Predict the structure.
Amino acid sequence: MGKNRIETKQADEALLASLGYKQELRRAFTPFEVFGVAFSVIGLVPAMTSVLFNAVPNGGAVSIVWGWALACLPILCIGMAMAELASAAPTSGGLYYWTYTFSSPRCRNLLSWIVGYINTIGSITAVASVDWACAVQIAAGATIGSNQAYVTTNAQLYGIYLAIVLSHGVLVSLGTTILARLQTVYIILNICLCLAIIVALPVATPPEFKNSASYALGNFTNTSGWPSGFAFIVGLLYPLWAIGGYDASIHMSEEASNAAVAIPWAIVGSIAVTGVLGWVMNISLVFCMGTDLANLTGSPVGQPMAQILYNSLGKQGALVLWAMIVLVQYMMGSSALLAASRQTFAFARDGALPFSRLFHRINSYTKTPVNTVWFVVVMSVLLGLLAFAGTQAINAVFTIVVTSQYISYMLPIFARFAFKNNFEPGPFNLGCLGFPVAAIAVSFMFFMVIVFLFPATPQTSVAEMNYTIVVLGGVMFFALVWYYFPVYGGVHWFKGPVENIGSQGRKDSMSQNWDQESVPRVEKGSAVEEVVIIVKDQ
Ligand SMILES: *[C@@H]1O[C@H](CO)[C@@H](O)[C@H](O)[C@H]1NC(C)=O
C-alpha cells in the first residue's frame, strides 16, 4: 500500500514535469476527494435552490423538468471533451495551458491570455454567486422563521454576504488537508438533502399543493415577457448554473494523486451523478409545488425552493431542511474559493496577472497560496457591490459564471481540433467519438453564451440591464489593453505557460511547435523573471 502510494506520487510528478512544472503543492487529495471537490462545487441541492428562481417564470414545470433533462446531454458532452484534455495534461492552470499548447504559434499567446483571464474572472464570480446565494438563503430562513413578517434589504444582504466571504477566506487559508477531509462530509450532507427532497417532500405535501401528472410534466407557464421558445432557452440557466463549475477539479490537478485518471472521472462522474439525481429531485418538486407560481417567486420569502418547502413541510420542517441547505451552500462556497485561488495561483505563476510576484507565493506555514485566496476574497467583495444596483444586477453573477466558464471551456476544446498539434490522449479518451462530442459541446456553448448576453427581461431599464456584458466586457477590455500596452504589455513578454522545472522539462509536450525558439525565454526585468526568481527562492 505504502509503496503503491509512492509510485503513484512519482508518476504524478513525472507527468507534471513533462508539462514543464515542478511539484510545489501537496498531493493531499485522493481520487474520491477530488470527486468530492467537483461534486461539492456543483452543490446540487443548494445549487438548484440558488437558481430555481430563473426556471419558474421562464416556463414553470416544463422548464424545470424537461429543461433540465434536455440540458444534461450537452453538459455531459462538454464534460467529456474537457475530461479528455484533463487526462492528457493534468495541470492546475488547465484551460489556458491547453489553449496554448493546442493553438497555432501565431495566436497562442493571445488566446491563452484571454482564456486565462476569462477563466480567472469566471472562477472568482463563481465564489461571488455561491456566496451571494448563501446570503439570500440565510435571509430567506429569517423570513420563514418570522412567519414571513421580516424581509431583508439588499444592504443587509450585502452585510451577510461580507461575513460569508470573509469567513471563507479564513477557512480556505488553512491547510489543504483539513479541506480535503471535509469533502466527505459535504458529500454525505448533500446526499441526505437529495433523499429528503425525493422521499420526504412528496410524503409531507398537503393535497392542495399536490399537482397532477399532466400539470407536473406538461404545464408550460411563461410570465417572463419573452416569447415562449426563448423563455424556455433562458430558463436553461437553471440546469447550466446548477451543473456547472466542474472545471474545479482541474484546478486540483497538482494536488490529486493519480491525476490523469482521477480528474477526468471526477468531471464526468460528478456531471452524471448530479444530472440524474437532480432530475429525480426536479420531478419531486414539480409534483409538490402547487400551481400558484406567482406565489413561489413573489412571496416575502422570495425563494421558490424555500416557499415549496414551507408550503409542504410547515415552518419547523422547512427550517430544518433549509438550515442544511444553507450549510451545504456555505461549504460549496469554500470549495469554489479553493478552486478560484488555485486558478489564480497558476495564472500568476505564469506571470500573467498584475502583481504576479505577490500572488505566486505559498505560505510556508499552511502550505497554501494564501495571497491568492485573499485576492479572490477582495474581488468577490467588490462584485457583491452589484447588489446596490438592484436584484437583476446582482443576479447577473449567475449568468457571468456560465458565460465566462463557457468561453474558457470552448477555446481549448476548439483549439485541439482547429489547429495543427500532436494531441496525445491520456488514459481517459473517447477515441473516434472525441470529435463529434467536442463539436456538440462547442456549438452548444457558443449558442448559450449569445443567449446570456440578452437582458433578463425584455423591458430593460438601468436596474435590469444585462450586467453580464458589462462585467465580462470590462475584464476583456482590461485584459486586452494590458496585453497590448506599450512596453509593459503582455505582448512583449507573455509567452504562455512558463515552465519552472529547468531545461529537461516539456520535451514530450503535445505541441509540435516546441523548439528552442518557442520555449518561453526569461527576459531581464520582466514579470516572468520575477516569477522564476521566486521559484528559485523556494
Ligand atoms: C398551466 O396551469 C395554469 C394554472 O393551473 C393554467 O391556467 C394554464 O392554462 C396551464 N397551461 C397549460 C399549457 O396547460
